[in-house]
Amino acid sequence: MMRADADRTDLEVADQVRRMYWGAVLARQVERVGKDTLARMEVTLQLTESLYKNSAGKVSKPITWTPKSWWSRYARWWRRSRRTP
Prior knowledge:
Number of strands: 0
Number of helices: 2
Order of helices and strands: HH
Largest sheet: none
Shape: flat
């Protein structure tokens, strides 16, 4: 009975160590992603501020792209490519 309790305790310790290790690995990856995201957002903010302050980069017509427009062009191309001469 005591031996079974000792084995169970060893297994619990091994499980806890494994969970803590992978938790640390995950935390390190989340930190890297967070720092990368923060750097990208800061660059975006700087770019936006410079465009706003300098009033450069004006767009006369927004770019419009929708999945439907892509699909209709593809379907049209596909129908034309299937025609027999």
